[in-house]
Amino acid sequence: MAVYHGGIARCDRDLHFTMKTALHLLSHAIFWVWNLTFIGVVYLWILPEFGIDMFQAARMGEIPPAFILSILGILVVPLVCTVLGGWRLRKHPILLMRLFYGVEAPLFGLCLLRLFLIRETTPASAQVLLTVLGAVAIFTIETLAGYAAYRRPLAWIQMIGHSLVLLTGVYTGALLLLYTVPALCAMGYSFFFEAYWLRDVGWMLQRPWELGLFLLFVGSCLVFVSMPYVMVNFYVRSWHRIRSAFGKQHGQGRSWITTATALTLSLALFGLLQGQTQAKAIE
Prior knowledge:
This protein is mainly alpha-helical and about 280 residues long. The protein has helices at about 1-60, 65-90, 95-115, 125-145, 150-195, 200-205, 210-250, 250-270, 280. It has two domains: about 25-120, no CATH class; about 125-275, no CATH class. Helix 1 (about 1-60) packs parallel to helix 3, helix 3 (about 95-115) packs antiparallel against helix 4 and helix 5 runs antiparallel to helix 7. The protein starts with a helix and ends with a helix.
């Protein structure tokens, strides 16, 4: 009987080790393949081809300054996160995923939204953008430095900030679900049943940049459909870690009251900024 239970325990350990290794390999693959493909396609192909014209248009004022910042964000965010991942987190695959899904992807998505969808910011949309940026910054600090247990003011700032991290994660996840579920169905049908891309494989193999662009597109689609699940998981867990640590140090009641107060004030401010300006514009 002891031999039997010992064999089961060894099988469980082996299975756990195999799953952990597979998860680590998948984390490295997602982070490095997407980022290196993006850097190769953008910095070695798109910028040399179109960068000069874009910078000249920006210098002549043909591109609004807000859009210039969004373009620079799209160019800089993956590069900075790749350098940071290789410098600080290359031996920590789970932290690489937190950096990718919790920092890089939200910032990259905000830049795309500002560039293509949000032409003019209203007070409410500006508050949402600032809240997301603040949540990403707080999440980044917790990913790289953890909880500021020995600095009371920073601990309170983290507790308040991670309340916004919780709000951002839940809101963004719920919002993305409205788009990712239909997108996943459409992409799955097009990829597996129609499979138009199979006709162009030979053509793309002769043009490395076209193949790189196709792989970047496929990878971006996979990241997009997985965003609501992974991002919510990371953000909620981040809030829970800080709330638990803060509660042990300053009291569980204070941690819950701080979270509830920060969420209430943020939602109240969002409601106050929802005033419609059509009547003033018509007048």
